[in-house]
Design goal:
The complex is a heterodimer of chains A (323) and B (325). In chain A, 67% of the residues lie in helices and 2% in strands. Chain A is elongated. The N terminus of chain A is likely disordered. Chain B is mainly α and 325 residues long. Chain B folds into two domains: 44 residues, no CATH class; 201 residues, MetI-like fold. The longest helix of chain B has 38 residues.
Chain lengths: 323, 325
Amino acid sequence: MSDLSPHASARPLAGPAAGMPVDASVPPAAPDKGESLLRRHVSSFFESWSAIIGLVVLVLSVMAALLAPWIAPQNPYDLASLSIMDNMLPPGEIFGMGQTAYLGTDDQGRDMLSAILYGLRVSLTVGASSVLIAAVIGASLGVLAAYAGGRVESFVMRVVDLQLSFPAILVALVLLAVFGRGVDKVVIALVVVQWAYYARTVRGSALVEKRREYIEAARCLALPRRRIVFRHLLPNCIPPLIVVATVQIANAIALESTLSFLGVGVPVTEPSLGMLIANGYGYLLSGNYWISTFPGVALVIVIVAINLVGDRLRDVLNPRLAK
Amino acid sequence: MLVYLIRRIGQSLLVIAVMAFLVFLAVYAVGDPVAILANPEANQAELDAIAARLGLDRPIWEQFGIFVWNALQGDLGTSFVYSESALKVIIERLPATMELAFVALLLSILIGVPLGVIAGLKPDSLVGRSIMSTSILGFSLPNFWIGLMLILLFAVELRWLPASGRGETVEVLGVHLSMFTWNGLSHLLLPAITLALYKSSLVIRIAQAGTREVMLQDYVRFARAKGLSSRRIVFVHVLKNMLIPVVTVLGLELGSMIAFAVVTETVFSYPGMGKLLIDSINRLDRPIVVAYLMLTVFIFVIINLVVDLLYAAIDPRVRLSEAKG
């Protein structure tokens, strides 16, 4: 366990460096030792084939989503470029200016491949941003609860228990029914249902960390409380947070697609993968399988890739399994 | 124990009260039901009349007061769409959802336990590892999409099973159930499999971990030394002991199954509580949404309360630490 926080004992004493912002994802400062720890984690991550495949697929999906405007055959939002004559073409047919619709077209004549690439953008953006915001809020509350103890802690943890006792899908559904559709609203709903996981995870590790010598040392230096909590305590609670956050990105994407499928998620103008699946639902029974199937396959590939990476991160960052 | 019991029940009541307030406040903000219900050509006076009939013209705090008072008497409002007691409309659909959840629960045990035990007996074999990796898939696959793919395969391509609806029901003890007719069962199968998929992955994981743990125990070693057949060891000694965590988790998961039924019922147009909720959200039928949420909050609070009390009964440390804080 102690090898997870080698920079910890050094950091509070490193006078000038203490003013620098702490980048949570990278073990900061402490020169050679921290680097070798990171390198050790990275090399042990790459020992697993499934993790490598997951990471490669994930990177490719993110790239495809980022580069969608340049690599997609068509801009599915540009109504002028759509032709109703091209609607419901099965995969492999020719559409528009003689391009091939490898994955078919939907009821409005949209090329499914293009729609999926753009939908991936929305899904990944919603997933990543909701996790980021929820992790920041949850981690701050969790570390505060652990450090403050007493009434603050029991209040925060009661709210966490309450939140976690209701299924995420139901809470998000109700929130969106109230707020209405919209990408920002979906993100808010996902943050509300997720923050408690991070609060609980971070509090758990913060309770262990706060009894360590480096926190005592920081206290003896009479550092302000805020600095002890956010600069010294929080960075050392990050590893388990990374694991939870990775898996939660997959869950957030799945949840978003479910909400969009139910008709309370993203608006029609910004279709995510879930929305595309919902659009094809009505045509499924008449045998036009491609509209629902391919966005779903894309969704599954992304989610499985993230889970493979998350699984490996859990093994790598778990101090109990560390050699 | 009595102190703990009183404290815990008090907390549960507080939770219900807080949720009632939040639910009412939230649902109050959803759209304008008058605009939906009224004839599009209605004039202002007619609109006002509808608002007055539904009690929507009064200030919000007064509406909340009336809501709480009526709720205490078991009246959660009258549905705008069905013109019937909202609770009654929901309770009518309760058996369908409960039946679905029950069959799904049964399926996840029937699928999950054998696979989990096999994977736990031989964790390093090819079979064991493929079962475990498949269970990751079960966790990752979005539930509604699996439902669509099952419809595509079994209803559209193979034409073996119907794609939607509930099918014939028979009345058993005053409740309409569909699992005792072939037609009803065939309608139930696809939604139940969809709903069971996630849970069976969960059961596989717990059963695998439990089996591995039990296999290392002294009593299993002793049973082996006694010369018992491995079949008897697995079926009597291992199975009995690894089922405890499985049952605990599944009990806790029953609530989330009801919640997930919302998605499954929508995919299969299955006339249960969940589909009613989605329809009511879309039709701005506030009383139904409120009644559904209050009923769910109630069910969840009860489940949590029972679980906590059971834990406290089994483990005295829980109630001692609670009594102090």
